[in-house]
Amino acid sequence: MKGNTPWKKVAARAMSELLALVLGIAITIAVGMTIYTFMPNYISSMQQQQRIALVVQDVFSISSSESILTISIRNLGTKEIKEINTTILSPANLDIELIAPKIEDVSSEKSTLKIAKIGLSPGLETILTIRLRGSSIGVGSKIIIAVSARYIDGSMASASTQALIA
After folding, report:
1. CA–CA separation, 156 vs 144, rounded Å?
2. What is the pLDDT of residues 38-73, one digit of tens each?
3. Domain range for residue 149?
4. Most-buried pick from 60, 97, 109, 165 (CB within 10 A)?
5. Could you give the CA distance from residue 101 to residue 73 in angstroms, rounded to a whole number?
């Protein structure tokens, strides 16, 4: 009788361990499939919310030290843009001024124009006309423009482009 008792314990434990292993694998597969199903949609929606398009409509020289730049900014995301910063990266140290549209909450520092409370809804576009003043912005000069947008949830998007002054 003593010879049969250890085999019964081993057989009973082996069934319990096998069942635990099968359940553990099944739970792991179920959790993995759930994550695999929901994560790509979540990641792609986060990327979609943070996009803008920047296009130079026109840039022309008024004199050897003054030019007019017209750009369009389109909100390609799914949330409203509350603030836009436009920076002229090259040439550096330009005085810039927003000509149109007339917006109350606008500030400018050297080469940067900050428009707060713009309220650009998803899918809409705004066109900005900006006066550039500086020493080397005559006909044929290349300008590099960078725009960053802050959404109502605090997320950011940016775009850049370049153009030659005509």
Report:
1. 20
2. 777 766 655 555 799 999 999 999 998 999 999 999
3. 52-164
4. 165
5. 13
Kindly report the backbone phi and psi dihedral angles of residue 146, in degrees, each rounded to the nearest multiple of 5, phi listed first: -125, 135
Work out whether the CA dihedral 40, 41, 42, 46 comes out positive or negative. Answer: positive
Question: Beta partners for 115?
Answer: 84, 106
Q: State whether 39 and 70 are in the same domain.
A: no
pTM, entire model:
0.70
Statement to judge: residues 139 and 62 lie in one domain: yes
On whether both 62 and 144 belong to a single domain, the answer is yes
13 and 90 inside one domain: no
* Contact of 118 with 81, CB cutoff 8 Å: yes
Do 105 and 56 sit in the same domain of this protein?
A: yes
Sheet with 156-164: list strands edge to edge. 106-109, 112-120, 81-90, 142-151, 156-164
Which residue type does 12 have? A
